[in-house]
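Quick one: structure for this chain?
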Amino acid sequence: MRRHRFARYARAYGGDIERWPAGVRAAAYAFAEDDPAAEGILAEACRLDRALDRSARAGKAVPSDDLAFAVALIPARHARRAPERGMALRPSWLGLAPAARPAPLAAAVLLALTIGYSAGAVGLAASMPDPAEPPLDMTLVIEGITGLKGVPAS
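Got it. Here's what it folds into:
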């Protein structure tokens, strides 16, 4: 077991290793014997346990110094990084996305529409038959068949 995992279990289950899940107790005891920092981690967890027990016995939540200290540390543990300049986050339909500038976005949409229109116009012009040429089904010549009306013999 590593120190950060040991500390996480101590915060979650308290300073008494007997209250920890059975699957990690043996590893926790081995870590506590080998690492001198384990004693401090368990002592801090025991202080919080005692503070919670005192407030539960009092029947109402009375914050003690240890509990107030633990609560005051929460923002420091979960500090948010400020976004870089120019990358302000705005809510969007995809969640939080970097803010887009309207001019480049409009130019990209216009470019996509122009390319799509051009490709469609070229495709329509290529698929339209030329009125000067007879249709393909009128120009078929069947070879080797004789005796049919209107079919020239080859």
